Amino acid sequence: MKRYGFIFARGGSKGVPGKNIRPLGGIPLIGHAIKAGQDSGLLDRIIVSTDDEAIADTARQLGAEVPFMRPTELAQDNSPEWLAWRHAINAVDDFDIFVSLPCTAPMRIGDDVRRCIETFESDKCDMVITAREAERHPSFNMITVDTAGYATIAMPIGTDIIRRQEAPPVFDMTTVCYVTTPNFILEHDAVFQGKVKMVEIPPERAVDIDTELDFAFAEFLMERNS
């Protein structure tokens, strides 16, 4: 079994400019994804897909491979990452297991990646994703507003359940790790077109960096844990 880890890091982030090589806890953000992949002990290669030479140079210095550059048309704000996944698969030699490690989840550890790979290889599924227990529940804490401006519960659950603790648990997807096969990506167009299993991640390791506030929170956690 050949397991390849991929890190997709384009250069044009607007929410946090230059975030993929911005220092966090003393190393560039992309370095945390590379280290988690290395620490998993299960990846044969760690490959970075980027359109940015500075990101490519940083990735190589931190021990990852950059055997190709991502085309500009696959590195725009509105470029589907699924297409970048396909491009990466077609740009390398044949392998068995595809593992995506987004830069935006710097608090993940090698064991999180290992659990995802082991879950995929031991369970019958097409994809493994990660998630954390949701802080809010669509049947109790989330609302929708109709065209007249009236609010109602997003997902009414029925009269027999009156406490959130009795309701089925819900989870927030995280960007910690995705595991699948190259064939699934080439033959499908989205994660949930197949049978999907979940690996639960503790909230403190499920931080997803999209904004400056997210980055500041990650810095706080890094300092607290150091």
UniProtKB/TrEMBL annotation:
Keywords assigned: Nucleotidyltransferase, Transferase
InterPro entries from the UniProt entry: CMP-NeuNAc_synthase, Cytidylyl_trans, Nucleotide-diphossugar_trans
UniProt keyword Cell wall biogenesis/degradation present: no
Database matches in Pfam families: CTP_transf_3 (PF02348)
Residue ranges crossing the lipid bilayer per the database entry: none
Gene Ontology MF, one: nucleotidyltransferase activity
Annotated protein name in UniProt: Acylneuraminate cytidylyltransferase
Organism the protein comes from: Pseudodesulfovibrio nedwellii
